Amino acid sequence: MTAGMITWTTAAPAVGAAFVASTVEVVEAFTIVLAVATLRGWRPALSGAAAALAALAIVVAALGPALDLVPLQVLQVVIGVLLLLFGLGWLRKAVLRAAGLMALHDESAIFEREKAAIGGEVAGGRSKDWIAGLAAFKAVLLEGLEVVFIVLAVGAARGLTLPAAAGALAAFVAVMVAGLAIHKPLSKVPENTLKFAVGVMLSSFGVFWTAEGLGTPCPGGDLALFGLAGVFLLAALALVGLVRPRPVEASA
Amino acid sequence: MRMLMEVLAELWSMFAGDRRLTLLALCVVVLTGLIALLARSSFAPAVLLVGAILVLADAVFAAAHKARGR
After folding, report:
1. Is the ipTM of this complex over 0.85?
2. Pairwise CA distance, residues A153 & A191, whole Å
3. Residue A212's closest chain B neighbor by CA?
4. Do the Cβ atoms of B45 and A217 come within 8 Å?
5. pLDDT tens digit string along A3-30?
6. pLDDT for A178-192, tens place per residue?
7. Distance (Å, rounded) from C-alpha A84 to C-alpha A79?
8. Which residues contact A24 (CB under 8 A, 6 or more apart)?
9. Which residues 38-57 of B are in CB contact (within 8 Å) with A?
Protein backbone atom coordinates (compact mmCIF):
# COMPACT_ATOMS: atom_id res chain seq x y z
CA MET A 1 0.00 0.00 0.00
CA THR A 2 1.47 3.34 -0.96
CA ALA A 3 1.40 6.40 1.24
CA GLY A 4 -1.12 8.03 -1.04
CA MET A 5 -3.60 5.19 -0.62
CA ILE A 6 -3.56 5.20 3.18
CA THR A 7 -6.85 6.54 4.49
CA TRP A 8 -7.38 8.12 7.88
CA THR A 9 -9.69 5.33 9.10
CA THR A 10 -6.89 2.88 8.34
CA ALA A 11 -4.00 4.90 9.71
CA ALA A 12 -5.59 6.68 12.70
CA PRO A 13 -5.82 3.65 15.03
CA ALA A 14 -2.19 2.64 14.28
CA VAL A 15 -0.85 6.20 14.64
CA GLY A 16 -2.92 6.81 17.79
CA ALA A 17 -1.86 3.54 19.43
CA ALA A 18 1.82 4.15 18.57
CA PHE A 19 1.65 7.74 19.87
CA VAL A 20 -0.04 6.93 23.21
CA ALA A 21 2.01 3.78 23.90
CA SER A 22 5.25 5.54 22.97
CA THR A 23 4.39 8.50 25.23
CA VAL A 24 4.24 6.12 28.19
CA GLU A 25 7.52 4.41 27.28
CA VAL A 26 9.40 7.66 26.52
CA VAL A 27 8.24 9.21 29.81
CA GLU A 28 9.62 6.17 31.68
CA ALA A 29 12.96 6.32 29.83
CA PHE A 30 13.18 10.10 30.31
CA THR A 31 12.80 9.72 34.10
CA ILE A 32 15.89 7.50 34.28
CA VAL A 33 17.94 9.60 31.84
CA LEU A 34 17.06 12.65 33.95
CA ALA A 35 18.11 10.80 37.13
CA VAL A 36 21.47 10.05 35.49
CA ALA A 37 21.84 13.66 34.31
CA THR A 38 21.01 15.00 37.78
CA LEU A 39 23.71 12.82 39.35
CA ARG A 40 26.50 12.92 36.76
CA GLY A 41 25.57 15.63 34.25
CA TRP A 42 24.06 15.49 30.77
CA ARG A 43 27.15 14.09 29.01
CA PRO A 44 26.96 10.48 30.29
CA ALA A 45 23.14 10.62 30.24
CA LEU A 46 22.97 11.69 26.60
CA SER A 47 25.86 9.42 25.55
CA GLY A 48 24.08 6.39 27.04
CA ALA A 49 20.76 7.40 25.48
CA ALA A 50 22.37 8.04 22.07
CA ALA A 51 24.14 4.65 22.14
CA ALA A 52 20.83 2.95 22.93
CA LEU A 53 19.08 4.80 20.08
CA ALA A 54 21.85 3.63 17.74
CA ALA A 55 21.37 0.03 18.95
CA LEU A 56 17.62 0.38 18.38
CA ALA A 57 18.23 1.72 14.86
CA ILE A 58 20.29 -1.41 14.12
CA VAL A 59 17.46 -3.62 15.45
CA VAL A 60 14.91 -1.79 13.25
CA ALA A 61 17.20 -1.92 10.19
CA ALA A 62 17.61 -5.68 10.67
CA LEU A 63 13.98 -6.47 11.53
CA GLY A 64 12.27 -4.26 8.93
CA PRO A 65 13.47 -6.07 5.78
CA ALA A 66 13.21 -9.47 7.54
CA LEU A 67 9.50 -8.88 8.15
CA ASP A 68 8.97 -8.43 4.39
CA LEU A 69 10.10 -12.02 3.88
CA VAL A 70 7.41 -13.45 6.19
CA PRO A 71 4.09 -14.36 4.48
CA LEU A 72 1.43 -11.79 5.41
CA GLN A 73 -0.97 -14.25 7.06
CA VAL A 74 1.77 -15.73 9.26
CA LEU A 75 2.90 -12.21 10.17
CA GLN A 76 -0.66 -11.24 11.11
CA VAL A 77 -1.11 -14.26 13.39
CA VAL A 78 2.30 -13.90 15.08
CA ILE A 79 1.91 -10.14 15.58
CA GLY A 80 -1.73 -10.55 16.62
CA VAL A 81 -0.92 -13.14 19.28
CA LEU A 82 2.04 -11.13 20.62
CA LEU A 83 -0.11 -7.97 20.73
CA LEU A 84 -2.88 -9.87 22.51
CA LEU A 85 -0.45 -11.18 25.16
CA PHE A 86 1.20 -7.77 25.56
CA GLY A 87 -2.12 -5.88 25.60
CA LEU A 88 -3.89 -8.19 28.05
CA GLY A 89 -0.86 -7.97 30.37
CA TRP A 90 -1.02 -4.15 30.32
CA LEU A 91 -4.79 -4.14 30.74
CA ARG A 92 -4.59 -6.53 33.71
CA LYS A 93 -2.17 -4.19 35.50
CA ALA A 94 -4.21 -1.12 34.52
CA VAL A 95 -7.41 -2.66 35.94
CA LEU A 96 -5.64 -3.59 39.20
CA ARG A 97 -4.20 -0.07 39.49
CA ALA A 98 -7.56 1.58 38.76
CA ALA A 99 -9.19 -0.66 41.39
CA GLY A 100 -6.58 0.33 43.98
CA LEU A 101 -5.11 -3.17 44.25
CA MET A 102 -1.73 -2.25 42.78
CA ALA A 103 0.42 0.80 43.48
CA LEU A 104 0.04 3.55 40.88
CA HIS A 105 2.99 4.25 38.60
CA ASP A 106 4.72 7.30 40.12
CA GLU A 107 7.50 8.92 38.06
CA SER A 108 8.71 11.07 41.00
CA ALA A 109 9.14 7.98 43.20
CA ILE A 110 10.88 6.10 40.37
CA PHE A 111 13.16 9.12 39.81
CA GLU A 112 14.24 9.11 43.47
CA ARG A 113 14.67 5.32 43.52
CA GLU A 114 16.78 5.33 40.33
CA LYS A 115 18.88 8.22 41.64
CA ALA A 116 19.58 6.28 44.84
CA ALA A 117 20.39 3.09 42.92
CA ILE A 118 22.73 4.82 40.44
CA GLY A 119 24.27 6.84 43.29
CA GLY A 120 24.97 3.61 45.17
CA GLU A 121 26.66 2.00 42.17
CA VAL A 122 28.65 5.12 41.39
CA ALA A 123 29.88 5.23 44.99
CA GLY A 124 31.12 1.67 44.49
CA GLY A 125 34.30 2.99 42.88
CA ARG A 126 34.10 2.02 39.19
CA SER A 127 34.25 4.70 36.52
CA LYS A 128 31.40 6.96 37.59
CA ASP A 129 30.37 8.34 34.20
CA TRP A 130 30.55 4.88 32.64
CA ILE A 131 28.12 3.42 35.20
CA ALA A 132 25.77 6.39 34.88
CA GLY A 133 25.87 6.19 31.07
CA LEU A 134 25.16 2.46 31.22
CA ALA A 135 22.05 3.10 33.32
CA ALA A 136 20.77 5.58 30.71
CA PHE A 137 21.66 3.13 27.92
CA LYS A 138 19.74 0.27 29.54
CA ALA A 139 16.65 2.37 30.26
CA VAL A 140 16.42 3.78 26.72
CA LEU A 141 17.14 0.38 25.16
CA LEU A 142 14.47 -1.46 27.19
CA GLU A 143 11.76 1.14 26.76
CA GLY A 144 12.83 1.66 23.14
CA LEU A 145 12.47 -2.05 22.37
CA GLU A 146 8.88 -1.85 23.55
CA VAL A 147 8.31 1.15 21.26
CA VAL A 148 9.88 -0.72 18.32
CA PHE A 149 7.67 -3.73 18.98
CA ILE A 150 4.52 -1.60 19.21
CA VAL A 151 5.33 0.37 16.04
CA LEU A 152 6.08 -2.80 14.06
CA ALA A 153 3.11 -4.63 15.54
CA VAL A 154 0.47 -2.00 14.83
CA GLY A 155 1.99 -1.02 11.50
CA ALA A 156 3.75 -3.90 9.76
CA ALA A 157 0.76 -6.11 8.97
CA ARG A 158 -0.85 -3.43 6.79
CA GLY A 159 2.03 -1.37 5.47
CA LEU A 160 1.52 1.28 8.14
CA THR A 161 4.97 1.11 9.72
CA LEU A 162 5.90 4.64 8.61
CA PRO A 163 2.71 6.33 9.94
CA ALA A 164 3.06 4.35 13.19
CA ALA A 165 6.72 5.37 13.44
CA ALA A 166 5.65 8.99 12.89
CA GLY A 167 3.25 8.61 15.84
CA ALA A 168 6.09 7.27 18.01
CA LEU A 169 8.41 10.07 16.85
CA ALA A 170 5.77 12.68 17.70
CA ALA A 171 5.51 11.18 21.20
CA PHE A 172 9.31 11.28 21.56
CA VAL A 173 9.47 14.94 20.52
CA ALA A 174 6.52 15.92 22.75
CA VAL A 175 8.00 14.23 25.83
CA MET A 176 11.50 15.60 25.19
CA VAL A 177 10.23 19.17 24.70
CA ALA A 178 8.09 18.98 27.85
CA GLY A 179 10.78 17.20 29.89
CA LEU A 180 13.63 19.49 28.92
CA ALA A 181 11.43 22.55 29.51
CA ILE A 182 10.41 21.66 33.05
CA HIS A 183 13.58 19.69 33.87
CA LYS A 184 11.72 17.37 36.27
CA PRO A 185 10.19 13.88 36.06
CA LEU A 186 6.96 14.12 34.08
CA SER A 187 4.77 13.02 36.98
CA LYS A 188 1.85 15.14 35.73
CA VAL A 189 1.44 12.94 32.64
CA PRO A 190 -1.63 10.78 33.39
CA GLU A 191 0.45 7.65 32.88
CA ASN A 192 -1.97 5.24 34.56
CA THR A 193 -4.86 6.43 32.38
CA LEU A 194 -2.66 6.24 29.29
CA LYS A 195 -1.64 2.69 30.20
CA PHE A 196 -5.32 1.76 30.52
CA ALA A 197 -5.93 3.17 27.02
CA VAL A 198 -2.85 1.43 25.60
CA GLY A 199 -3.95 -1.91 27.07
CA VAL A 200 -7.37 -1.49 25.42
CA MET A 201 -5.84 -0.51 22.05
CA LEU A 202 -3.19 -3.24 21.95
CA SER A 203 -5.69 -5.95 22.97
CA SER A 204 -8.05 -4.73 20.22
CA PHE A 205 -5.27 -4.83 17.62
CA GLY A 206 -4.34 -8.29 18.91
CA VAL A 207 -7.85 -9.69 18.33
CA PHE A 208 -8.11 -7.88 14.98
CA TRP A 209 -4.83 -9.18 13.51
CA THR A 210 -5.17 -12.69 14.94
CA ALA A 211 -8.65 -13.06 13.44
CA GLU A 212 -7.43 -11.63 10.12
CA GLY A 213 -4.42 -13.98 10.08
CA LEU A 214 -6.63 -17.00 10.83
CA GLY A 215 -8.65 -16.21 7.72
CA THR A 216 -11.80 -15.02 9.51
CA PRO A 217 -11.54 -11.21 9.53
CA CYS A 218 -13.72 -9.14 11.81
CA PRO A 219 -16.87 -7.79 10.12
CA GLY A 220 -16.69 -4.10 9.25
CA GLY A 221 -13.04 -4.00 8.18
CA ASP A 222 -10.84 -1.43 9.92
CA LEU A 223 -13.84 0.12 11.66
CA ALA A 224 -14.10 -3.11 13.69
CA LEU A 225 -11.06 -1.87 15.65
CA PHE A 226 -13.21 0.85 17.23
CA GLY A 227 -15.88 -1.70 18.16
CA LEU A 228 -13.29 -4.06 19.66
CA ALA A 229 -11.78 -1.18 21.65
CA GLY A 230 -15.24 -0.26 22.96
CA VAL A 231 -15.92 -3.83 24.12
CA PHE A 232 -12.49 -4.14 25.80
CA LEU A 233 -12.96 -0.75 27.48
CA LEU A 234 -16.40 -1.66 28.86
CA ALA A 235 -15.17 -5.07 30.03
CA ALA A 236 -12.11 -3.55 31.74
CA LEU A 237 -14.21 -0.85 33.47
CA ALA A 238 -16.67 -3.52 34.63
CA LEU A 239 -13.75 -5.53 36.05
CA VAL A 240 -12.49 -2.45 37.92
CA GLY A 241 -15.92 -2.13 39.54
CA LEU A 242 -16.06 -5.84 40.36
CA VAL A 243 -12.66 -6.13 42.07
CA ARG A 244 -12.50 -2.68 43.72
CA PRO A 245 -12.50 -3.26 47.51
CA ARG A 246 -15.81 -2.27 49.15
CA PRO A 247 -15.52 0.54 51.79
CA VAL A 248 -15.90 -1.97 54.67
CA GLU A 249 -13.40 -4.33 53.07
CA ALA A 250 -10.95 -1.47 52.43
CA SER A 251 -11.14 -0.16 56.00
CA ALA A 252 -10.80 -3.66 57.55
CA MET B 1 26.49 -10.25 29.35
CA ARG B 2 24.48 -9.39 32.47
CA MET B 3 22.78 -6.58 30.58
CA LEU B 4 21.91 -8.87 27.67
CA MET B 5 20.29 -11.29 30.11
CA GLU B 6 18.36 -8.42 31.69
CA VAL B 7 17.15 -7.27 28.27
CA LEU B 8 16.08 -10.82 27.35
CA ALA B 9 14.32 -11.23 30.71
CA GLU B 10 12.51 -7.94 30.13
CA LEU B 11 11.44 -9.02 26.64
CA TRP B 12 10.20 -12.36 28.01
CA SER B 13 8.21 -10.60 30.73
CA MET B 14 6.60 -8.34 28.09
CA PHE B 15 4.74 -11.32 26.67
CA ALA B 16 4.81 -13.99 29.35
CA GLY B 17 5.04 -12.06 32.63
CA ASP B 18 1.87 -13.77 33.84
CA ARG B 19 2.27 -17.43 32.82
CA ARG B 20 -1.37 -18.36 33.46
CA LEU B 21 -2.66 -15.47 31.34
CA THR B 22 -0.24 -16.37 28.54
CA LEU B 23 -1.22 -20.06 28.50
CA LEU B 24 -4.96 -19.35 28.62
CA ALA B 25 -4.70 -16.71 25.88
CA LEU B 26 -2.78 -19.16 23.67
CA CYS B 27 -5.50 -21.80 24.32
CA VAL B 28 -8.15 -19.29 23.18
CA VAL B 29 -6.14 -18.55 20.01
CA VAL B 30 -5.79 -22.29 19.25
CA LEU B 31 -9.54 -22.80 19.83
CA THR B 32 -10.32 -19.87 17.53
CA GLY B 33 -7.93 -21.29 14.94
CA LEU B 34 -9.71 -24.66 15.06
CA ILE B 35 -13.11 -22.99 14.66
CA ALA B 36 -11.80 -20.92 11.76
CA LEU B 37 -10.21 -23.97 10.14
CA LEU B 38 -13.02 -26.48 10.60
CA ALA B 39 -16.12 -24.32 10.38
CA ARG B 40 -14.85 -21.28 8.42
CA SER B 41 -17.38 -19.58 10.63
CA SER B 42 -17.66 -15.82 10.81
CA PHE B 43 -18.19 -16.09 14.54
CA ALA B 44 -14.53 -17.06 15.13
CA PRO B 45 -13.53 -13.42 15.88
CA ALA B 46 -16.34 -13.26 18.47
CA VAL B 47 -14.95 -16.42 20.13
CA LEU B 48 -11.52 -14.79 20.21
CA LEU B 49 -12.88 -11.55 21.68
CA VAL B 50 -15.01 -13.23 24.36
CA GLY B 51 -12.20 -15.66 25.15
CA ALA B 52 -9.69 -12.82 25.53
CA ILE B 53 -12.04 -10.97 27.89
CA LEU B 54 -12.57 -14.13 29.97
CA VAL B 55 -8.79 -14.64 30.16
CA LEU B 56 -8.41 -11.01 31.30
CA ALA B 57 -11.14 -11.48 33.91
CA ASP B 58 -9.47 -14.65 35.19
CA ALA B 59 -6.09 -12.87 35.49
CA VAL B 60 -7.64 -9.85 37.24
CA PHE B 61 -9.65 -11.96 39.72
CA ALA B 62 -6.61 -14.14 40.48
CA ALA B 63 -4.41 -11.08 41.11
CA ALA B 64 -7.15 -9.40 43.18
CA HIS B 65 -7.55 -12.53 45.29
CA LYS B 66 -3.80 -12.65 45.84
CA ALA B 67 -3.64 -8.94 46.72
CA ARG B 68 -6.45 -9.31 49.28
CA GLY B 69 -4.79 -12.37 50.81
CA ARG B 70 -1.71 -10.35 51.77
Report:
1. yes
2. 21
3. B45
4. yes
5. 455 677 678 888 888 998 889 888 888 8
6. 888 877 777 666 778
7. 8
8. A191, A194, A195, A198
9. 40-42, 44-45, 48-49, 52-53, 55-57
